[in-house]
Amino acid sequence: MNCYEFESHLSGFVDGDMSSSIRKEFLNHKSECTHCQQLLQDFKYTIRAVRGLPRHATSPDFERRLRERIASGKKQPWFQWLRNIGPVPKYIVATAFAVIVVLVGYQLISQHAQPMESHQQAVIPPPALNMQEDEGVPVAEETAEQPSMMQSDTYDTNQFVPPPPEHSYERQIKYVNGE
Amino acid sequence: MAEFMEKYTDEELIARFQQGDEYAFEEIVYRFKDRLKNFVFRYLDSEEVAEDVVQDTFLRVYQKKHMYRNIAKFSTWIYTIAGNLAKTELRKRKRRKMFSLSSLGLEDKEYEIPSEEFAPEDEIEGEYTEQEIQAAINNLSDKFKTVIILRDIQELSYDEISKIVDVPVGTVKSRINRARLKLQEKLQHLRGKKVERTV
Fold first, then answer.
1. From the list A11, A46, A70, which residue is nearest B187 (CB)?
2. With bands split at pLDDT 50, 70 and 90, how would you rate the model's confidence at A162?
3. Which of A46, B34, B54, B161 has its CA 20 to 30 A from that of B81?
4. Which chain A residue shows the shortest CA-CA distance from B153?
5. Which residue ranges in chain B fall short of pLDDT 50?
6. Which residues of chain A are within 8 Å of residue B99 when distances are taken between CB atoms?
7. Residue-wise burial string across B23-46, b where 16 or more C-beta atoms lie within 10 A, e elsewhere
8. Which residue has the higher pLDDT, B101 or A39?
9. Reduced to 3 states, what is the DSSP secondary structure of residue A161?
10. Residue B137 contacts by C-beta under 8 Å, 6 or more apart in sequence?
């Protein structure tokens, strides 16, 4: 056993966690090497010093405080995780703020745009069909009898009479003509 | 405290607590509070914070009692919880320290650097003082600090330490050996400095 190996077995020797063959080699080296004799002595001394440190017990009101915390079911406030993070670099704060501004702005713009489109689609009634027979296809035109909602705020949706369920041209023409 | 609880093992106590026996929890607190306090105190070197961490540990045990499975020793489980909370606390303190130092001016920093002087009355003839040993422990890296506290202060077995720090027993053995050598080196270095100053 050399000095390096001796050093690596110091704890095993002190803790009694060593095979008999290694122990024999360890003791042989120790008897021959004054440097390692001193090393072992200092090593034991350090362990004794650490083991001799005074014990620090809990305060007398420890259990009372614990019972109170349990009884009150006290939980950390929801923002506690922010405190736990500790100080955050400024560039992270700035980036996070910029992202939030962009997201909120985008959300506001999209909310403002969407209701107009859906409102128009939902409320504007389908125009009455004036069939132009020569073309053979129904053409959507606004008639004088059914004013557009865009023209009047007082448009009564009850005025709108839905077309018949069957969409044959003949039936639609009859419907338009009041037959 | 219900005295009849003394006859139960730690594992039996947590089993009883899992079934709703609050006295069993009180006995667990009674058995572990000082051991955990000492462990966390040596790890963090702060009485007040150590006490808070131990309180949080028991609160976790109370709230998460059903997470304990009887495949490991209860002491291993509770030490793991306390160790994790202590590590989290240490990380927070390091961040705060970095922040407070970086926010100070150069002149202020001179006053913030801890003095290496020791009060003469703290020194015990021929032995290291508690402050010296604690300072040397504080200077160890987390992995060395944890194993040396668990082994030499808490007097846990290699096997228990292996489960708490979640590394093989062989690694624990070599880590403890290196931790003790480093501690010895730091203590001698500390002494060397003091001798140089006094000569």
1. A46
2. low
3. A46
4. A51
5. 104-125, 194-199
6. 86-87
7. ebbbbbbebbbebbbbbbbbbbbe
8. A39
9. coil
10. A50, B42, B45, B145, B148, B149, B183
Look-up of token digits 């846990």: B156
Contact assignment for B130 to A66 by CB distance below 8 Å: no
Q: How many CB atoms lie within 10 A of CB A7?
A: 16
Q: How many CB pairs under 8 A join A and B?
A: 91
Cα–Cα distance measured from residue B1 to residue B10, given in angstroms and rounded to the nearest whole number? 15
Q: Which two tokens stand for residue B140?
A: 């160890």
Question: Within a 10 A sphere around the Cβ of A144, how many other Cβ atoms?
Answer: 5
Q: Using CA atoms of B145, A61, B67, A71 in order, give the dihedral in degrees to the nearest 10.
A: -150
| Nearest C-alpha neighbor of B164 from the set B89, B68, B81 | B81
Contact flag B188-A87 (C-beta cutoff 8 Å): no
- Do the chains contact at A17 and B26, CB–CB below 8 Å? no
Of B42, B155, B180, the CB nearest to A46: B180
Q: Is A10 on the interface with B (CB under 8 A)?
A: yes
- In Å, the largest CA–CA distance within chain B is 65
Give the tens place of pLDDT for each residue, A96-149: 889 999 999 988 888 877 655 555 555 555 555 554 444 444 444 444 444 444
Residue A32 pLDDT exceeds 60: yes
- Nearest CB neighbour to A70, from listed B41, B59, B99: B59
Partner-chain residue, chosen from B41, B181, B184, that has the shortest CB–CB distance to A56: B41
pLDDT computed for residue A79 by the predictor = 57
Backbone angles phi, psi at B177, to 5 degrees: -60, -45
Tokens read off for A130: 């004036």
Q: How far is B168 from chain A (nearest CA, A)?
A: 16
The residue of chain B nearest to residue A10, with distances taken between CA atoms, is B177
Assess A107–B contact: CB distance below 8 Å, yes or no.
no
A42 and B92 in contact by Cβ < 8 A?
A: no
Q: Which amino acid is at A150?
A: M
